[in-house]
Design goal:
The protein is an all-alpha fold. The chain contains nine helices and two strands. The protein is globular.
Amino acid sequence: MKVLFVETDRELMRGSGSPLRLEKAEREFVHTLYLDHYPALRGYAAVLGFRGEAAEDLLQETFLTAIRRVSVLRECDNPRAYLMQILRNVIGYQLRSMKYAAGLAEKLRARGPEEYRDELGPEVLYRGLIDDEDLRLLLRFYVDGLSQKELAEELGIDLGACKMRLKRARERLRAALARETEKEKGGEDHG
């Protein structure tokens, strides 16, 4: 696992125009948060389609924001939920800054009920792209962090069947995203 931050890297640690300074206890707290919640956050990013360097960038920004809000996080009853919210906000910011964000926002408004219109969670992003059962399966595995064995037990199926369902759900999501990407590319002026 990568080291989250280096004390001497003042450029990355800037917040409000001055270097961010953390006490030893705060650094240890953030490091523990990183170790405990990084896999779930990375899984959530993967469900949303962010992999490799794109996912790393999102997670780095998420933890830098968490570092800036360490005092709030220390008082938080559910740090994972707070970190997930930060990640959703970071993703939302990234999407708004991309060329196709306007089209995505319109799709989100058209797909979800009133209270979800500004939510960029996977439940909304992928609603209608894949079967609800596939989406729930992927969310329980990637976002909630259930193991394949735990998921199989929850579903009342054997481990082999669970692995196959996950594989097929991923394939269907990948295919649906490829179709959506092609639709968006078809609407752009390439000349």
